[in-house]
Design goal:
Layout: E1 2-7, H1 14-24, H2 28-35, E2 43-52, E3 55-64, H3 74-83, H4 88-109, H5 124-140, E4 144-147, E5 150-151, E6 156-159, E7 162-165, H6 169-174, E8 180-181, H7 192-201, E9 204-205, E10 212-220, E11 230-237, E12 254-261, H8 269-278, E13 283-290, E14 296-305, H9 306-319, E15 326-330, E16 337-344, E17 347-356, E18 359-365, H10 367-377, H11 381-395
Parallel strand pairs: 1-4, 4-9, 5-8
Antiparallel strand pairs: 1-11, 2-3, 6-7, 10-11, 12-14, 12-15, 13-14, 16-17, 17-18
Helix pairs in contact: 1-5, 3-4, 4-5, 4-7, 10-11
Amino acid sequence: MRTLYYDCFAGIAGDMHLGALLDLGVEEAHLRAELSKLGVPGWDLSVLRTGRGGIAATRVEVLTCEAAPPHRHLSDILAILDASGLSPGAKRRSQAVFRRLAEAESRVHGIPVDAVHFHEVGAVDALVDIAGAAIALERLAPDRILCSTVELGSGLVRCAHGTLPVPAPATEELLRGIPTRRGGVPYEAATPTGAAILSSVVDTFTDVPSLTVTAVGYGAGRRDGPIPNVLRVLLADQPGPATDAAADGITGPLALLECNIDDMSPELYEHVLGLLFDQGALDAWLTPVIMKKGRPGTQIGVLCTEALAAPLTATLLTETTTLGVRRQPVARTALPREVRVVETEYGPIPVKLALQDGRPLKAKPEYEACRRIALEHGIPIRLVYEAVARRLASEG
């Protein structure tokens, strides 16, 4: 399965994204030829090899002749894309990104979507960044797109609305329900354009994917910082349902780790479970138990590969109050799985399919994606689930 993975340890912006995909292998000549079909005059593309923090990267800058970029509405931008010569897929993806931007700005400013002025993101450079992203992704044609936790940065940023806190309100809105971190750099690391691209194209957010990397690309940001200001993208092969008999790329022996605790603050359990999953635990859970002398306690259970048993045991011993961890080998039978993106009236939603004999047996929409869409549209989340069910039924 061909997988594209965004490693957003230093954030993401539209220009960083385009530079990274060019660095990954998208041909500059192809990108320029397709972008010329936008039918929008007054711009040129600067593509340079540079470096950030000792890492060689591609820097893309859109050079424009517009001294005062027009304040375009969503309808203006959709009309430009509709009239362009872009492929149908690139048009749809570009329009989806701009719709997401408009919806975010609408919620932030409390105005109708049709009344949103895009300001900076309506300028030619944003059109080129977003259409270029759609063109490059179509060229790479990944089967699925994954992304890490996104660095947001810190401080203040100047924009058409004045001076705003980082992350900008639109960025915060776009990344609701998506894992983020803050304070890694003293400037805006994730921009609204970058956030809109991620929230529109990524199927799953994870920091621990199982990948066999075949190519790496780096897109340079505008400035140097305390960490390399680059977006890293990986092209990889990921185990799919044909070779993934254990559903998640794990076919070897597994280990079950357990420990009983009766003297730890309950608020710490969520932190411990998060660490276990970040390190690669296949599953982790809490079970209420009655311990010696009738004390109520909690049992932590962890399912993992044998290779991870030792480091996950160390995490339990250092992050909890337990004095010991039990370990035993286990076996399991698991259905192969795959993720399919389903188009609904509310937008694309990733759905996890469990397969039997190569055919779908069960389907479950990704909760975070459904929650984000329900919040964006102001509707009950059950309507999003029902929309997915209708679409899957129509596809047979």
